[in-house]
Amino acid sequence: MKKLLTFIITTVMLLMFALPAMAGSRAEMSSGMRDQLDTFFSNFAEARVGSFVVNNEIPMDTFVNFGVQHNLINRKYDLVNVNEGYWGVKKEAVEAAVYKYFGRRINAVSSQQYKLANNLYIVPKGSGEGLVFAQIAEWHENGTDFFTGVVNVYSTSSGFTGNVHGSAAEWNNLEPQDRPILIERYSFSATRSPSDPDRYVLVDWLEMK
User: Fold this and answer.
1) In sequence order, which residues have a C-beta less than 8 Å from that of residue 204 and are 6 or more positions away?
2) Which of 45, 87, 165, 173 makes an SS bond possible with 153, Cβ 3.0 to 4.6 Å?
């Protein structure tokens, strides 16, 4: 009887861990959690990271292109002003961005899009590109700090003055050219950052057709 009881308790505990500890749509999340996740996933959306799954080897180009774009968009203060037409993005800054958002340590090299020379990626200075951002749509906590869900990716004008965490109802009051348009949806999996338990790192990122 004791062995049977132990077996039953063990089975129930395993089932509890196998089932989501928390599952929710965007509407069921706190505003703070929504904003945090929106900001996290916007880093991948704005850098135009394409689909990848952890079971396959993630191409180095995916890491490098993300790291360069992330620094161009979010860390202008750390760019090297090469000349009037070009920025330099530091190799170590690209590697740091990849570790922060993917939890991977890489030795950055040239990609097809960005060439590395003297520890700098030389990138043309851009102008006036549209704004791309993400919003969490579903967030499921599957136990042991493993998370899955769905993200919506939106595009709008570079002059957008609305709330990137807002709703379609809010955006309907904006000028037509500023109303965000849904352009992509991604399913994802994520886990806790290996260096900061209050942050996440992306594991899988798959466009939903």
Assistant:
1) 52, 53, 54, 187, 188, 189
2) 45
Whether 128 shows a pLDDT value over 80: the answer reads no
Other Cβ atoms within 10 Å of 135 Cβ, number: 23
Sheet holding 200-207, edge to edge: 22-25, 131-141, 146-156, 181-192, 200-207
Tokens of 87: 């920025």
Look at the alpha carbons of 153, 49, 99, 96 in this order and tell me if their dihedral is positive or negative. Answer: negative
DSSP bridge partners of 202: 190
Helices 60-74, 31-46: inter-axial angle, 10-degree rounding: 110
Are 99 and 196 in contact by the 8 Å Cβ rule? The answer is: no
Residue the block writes with tokens 């338990």? 197
Amino acid at 41: F
Q: How confident is the model over 109-127, as pLDDT tens digits?
A: 999 999 999 999 999 987 6
Q: Residue 9 corresponds to which amino acid?
A: I
Give the pLDDT score at 57.
73
Please report, as a single letter, which amino acid is at residue 46.
Answer: E
- The angle formed by the CA atoms of residues 90, 204 and 69, to the nearest 5 degrees, is 25
